[in-house]
Write a structure and sequence with these properties.
homodimer; alpha/beta; seven-stranded mixed β-sheet; six-stranded parallel β-sheet
């Protein structure tokens, strides 16, 4: 079968690979669609930080580069391994792409997103969504609730990242929030905040375009275009000079961290959801009694997000999809388009 | 009366100033002793970040530079203003040096250390402990419990800073902790952790000397000399490779933040108690699901620390005092000695 594989910085190739085999406790999913993630762009532009590398195998999969890309996927179960009981052939599922060891202290205490060997389908080996089939653990195949489409299930992945970040922030309905960055994860955070009933949510983006339009469409109470507006001033005005309770940092550049520090209330929380290409300088003296908290992936959150989509607390998230491309155009019309045309492209789905 | 006043970077002078006047709700304290704080050294070496400056008055005191230094003080009440009921002439008191507005959202909700106009006796105007008298709000004059000496009460200030940092960390008796820096605040954090029953406390210092000896004396379970030992390796060995639950960052340099990131458990908390001269680079990707939390001063914690000293949960903290100097030697034998002879000097008390 064909698969888009990552070899190294700016080196992604459409290869012929063997079809993955179903093993006990696992299920084979025929991929219907798989989103291109911001992290895929980071890997493409800057190179993976590995493992795996060309020399160092991933500790869970034992694989070296190249690996198949793509981790935001949904599809249909076409085969189930021995002992699988919760999923059947023909089921439509969202694929939670995590690979975990099940043995470390974190895995054994319900914190599997902190697994010491953590990997993911789509960048650690064990295949990926930019190919026709993936084989995953039964636990990570989430049968779609009534009314949730396969495309919505693919888009559920970045929403889960946002949802987990919001959960880490501890914000409640009385709280106020700022989301820095209105890409898919930022929009996912916005949708999650609104699904959780948070009264005031501001969203900031560098330039006006598809992302700011979607932030408005998805219910942001305030949209700030940082290239032309004074973020700290806008937030100060909206919060009687106190700042917001929580900031979701989904952009990951020096300027946005500085915005976060300027916008957060004393004692508030900045949640880092972003992947950073360059580590920022932290004006730590200005932190005072606020916190910066990391957020990694998600744990037990796929079912919550799928259910919120099903019952309308998260209104149709497929609206963030701006393009669909076949596998052989995934680089030129997908990855490259997201890098070059950030103003108009938000989520691009690959259809293997 | 004589007072040591700060004019600007490396410019501290012994001046004659008017004796401060007692006003309603306030008490006049004759200072017995006042510690030189690490923050005094920062101000001396790098200059204050103000307010106040020469041109910009402090919003609470309305004073410009110069201001009297010294905020870690204890003494005897010599006069009480109209309406004062909780303190009497002759009482020995610890002076909590905060200046607060009592009007902002934080002051009105029991978070006075987050006051939007926050200042301190000893660097914002309203006098300071490096002079014979200070006049402070009744609320901030803490009568010493039986058995607590005036010197212990002066040293209570850095312990309160450590105590508050420990409280911010959320660590409990089952937890594990690392304190980075064994100056007075680091030792205060160690004493606080032990007073709260935390089972494992490691303390790291750059070089062996008075500070590491005191860390041992004050009950550290592990003392790491970072110039010759591998901190991450030592912490890994002591925690089965998991890292510590909390790190108290009391040193405030790039290397110690890097140590903190390397030593903290996934999901753990780094509390910044340090004052930073240069903002550090944060390898934010390595934060994963850990947090960095700021800690500023203390609120409602003086009585807790004084009581812990009285009942022996904090064993005699005056042992951290390495020298006592009169006011006219406070710069040469005090501030300068702490800068030049960090290995042998820990807490120096000025006796006005």
């Amino acid at each position: 079968v064909r698969a888009l594989r990552y070899y190294g910085q700016a080196d992604v190739r459409l290869d012929e690979v063997p079809e993955p085999q179903t093993t006990p406790g696992r299920v084979k999913v025929q991929v219907d669609c798989c989103g291109i993630c911001g992290s895929d762009l980071h890997i493409y532009r800057r190179g993976s930080m590995g493992p795996p590398t060309r020399e160092r195998p991933h500790p869970l999969t034992g694989e070296l580069l190249p690996v198949v890309l793509g981790h935001e996927m949904a599809g249909q179960v076409v085969e189930v391994g021995e002992g699988v009981t919760s999923v059947s052939v023909g089921d439509l599922v969202a694929v939670e792409p995590l690979l975990i060891c099940r043995q470390c202290q974190f895995c054994r205490s319900g914190q599997y997103n902190r697994c010491v060997k953590m990997g993911a389908v789509g960048n650690s080996g064990n295949g990926g969504g930019f190919s026709k089939y993936v084989v995953i653990d039964e636990q990570f195949a989430h049968v779609l609730p009534e009314g949730v489409s396969l495309e919505a299930a693919a888009v559920a992945e970045p929403i889960c990242v946002g949802w987990h970040g919001v959960a880490r922030s501890g914000v409640g309905p009385d709280g106020t929030a700022l989301v820095l960055g209105a890409g898919p994860v930022g929009l996912g955070a916005l949708l999650s905040l609104k699904a959780k009933g948070v009264g005031f949510v501001a969203v900031a983006e560098a330039v006006r375009g598809a992302r700011t339009r979607m932030a408005e469409e998805f219910g942001a109470d305030l949209v700030i275009e940082t290239s032309s507006q004074d973020l700290a001033g806008e937030i100060g005005e909206a919060t009687q000079g106190m700042g917001v309770d929580v900031v979701l940092e989904v952009a990951g550049v020096q300027a946005t961290l500085d915005y976060a520090m300027a916008a957060v209330k004393k004692g508030g929380t900045i949640v880092n959801v972003a992947v950073w290409e360059d580590p920022p300088v932290l004006n730590i003296g200005m932190l005072r009694e606020s916190s910066i908290t990391g957020s990694t992936g998600y744990a037990f959150e796929y079912p919550l997000v799928l259910q919120a989509i099903a019952d309308g607390r998260i209104p149709d998230p497929v609206r963030m999809v701006t393009r669909r491309v076949p596998l052989d155009q995934a680089v030129d019309q997908g990855i490259q388009a997201l890098i070059d045309d950030r103003a108009n492209q938000v989520k691009i789905l690959v259809q293997p």
